Amino acid sequence: MNKKLVASGLVAFALLGSVAFAKEASANSTIYRLYNTNNQAHLWTSSTNEAQSLPGIDWNWNYEGRAWVAPSKGTNIYRVYNPKSGEHIYTESTNEVDVLSKNGWRSEGVAFHSADKWGKPVYRLFNAKAGIGAHFVTLSSYERDQLVKSGWKYEGIAWRALGNFNWTKAQYNALKEGSYTGAGGTSYSSIVSQHGNPQETSTTEYGNITYLAVSYNNSDDLIDQTYRSVTLLFVKQANGAYNLVDKSITNVK
């Protein structure tokens, strides 16, 4: 039996299980964006109920779609509400939450989480002339640049979203597939050090061999609807490390 072919065939099986598990256990959150045409305020929420119900409660609210995908855990991003103006502010600073709370704002708790340093940057901008909508965040560098040209002040990266697909074709081609035992294959640890942790992982036992299947995926956002992924299969070594035995890539528009 060609064990490498068996290993290749297990990629789909292993990842199928990991996708179902990821949705159940990790529960990454889609963040939705809404805009109020009356006061120019934007709202970002992980609640599908809030995103769907607000336009029905107040016709001034317009649903603008998915903004980004947030991880199930990571740095807390808090939402603070001003009951007098109706404005919301999002921040990872507990000190800012405390200061605002002492000045009439109301903390609404953790809104979502920030991804790690490999995540897509979410940019923050400010425009004092925009009234309630003075604070704004976006995943789109194009939208950021257009707002800056219109007089907004760019304040840097606010936090990070999931889905930073930082693979190049050259990096993918450089990955070395080892024998069916993993001997000579690129190590999993070296890939993580360069690309961060994958979005999906799953381990599968086949006889006395342990396989690790992982996938790096590019998530949707408001501007770029491209989906890309790198799927890799590793075999556990005697020392506990994992070496690459199979790889595949998808690039679909």
TrEMBL record:
Residues 31-161 form the DUF5648 domain. Residues 1-22 form the signal peptide. Keywords: Signal. This is DUF5648 domain-containing protein.
